[in-house]
Amino acid sequence: MLLNINRSKFQAHPYHLVDPSPWPISMSFALLVTTISAVMYMQGFNYGGYLLNLGVLLVSTGMALWLRDVIVEATYLGHHTEQVKRGLTIGFALFIVSELMAFFSVFWAYFHSSLAPAVEIGGSWPPLGIQILDPFAIPLLNTILLLSSGAFITYAHHAIIKGNRKSAILGIILTLVFAIIFTALQGYEYSEAGFTIADSIFGTVFFASTGLHGFHVIVGTIFIGVQFIRLLNHHITTSHHVGLESAIAYWHFVDVVWLFLYAFVYLWAAPL
How far apart are CA 172 and CA 179, in angstroms? Predict the structure, then answer.
């Protein structure tokens, strides 16, 4: 009887060989549309804004459908073995390194311009005529919010490991609330700033660095929000929470980057 088993239905290795998926090529097309439409919008082309909204919609839809498939593979089909989870962890660590390089380039531009200010901006940093934001106002409050959110998400992680689901839910809720408040305050700060991205090199690197970080905060908030929904649906257990750990690692990365931004872009640039 055992000799009649169809071996093609069984997997003799711990790796996950994914099925053909339409989402990689779909996401590539969506990102191409988003990038081109963003340039068109910034250059004042007609309907550039509508195309940009379409691109964002396509990217969001593609991400949601792709993530749905990953959740199904991990939670319901059992494809995420210990070996697969180890590979996912290593892959996400490499992704964090690539993100670090993006911020490294922004900081490089900042220090290149600030350590030896050109005569075109008055030979001083910040440039003449630029009114710097008070680092002890909204930026300090945002620092407290972001560091507190990092503490709460770590609390949620330890609660998951100990099997305390209610505490984990509370920790993630507080993290999401603080993240949303941070984003709202950052937007308010932009609206109240006395300079724009076009006001000398300082305005460019300020909005490029804090804007890039703000984008990562929004992505991290969505990332944690997805894990929160999974936690409510009992997808996350004490032994199966690599997605949550990746979200936590991403959030701590965002925290550390903000400390450098606050120290150099806000505090160091502020007049004595």
Answer: 10
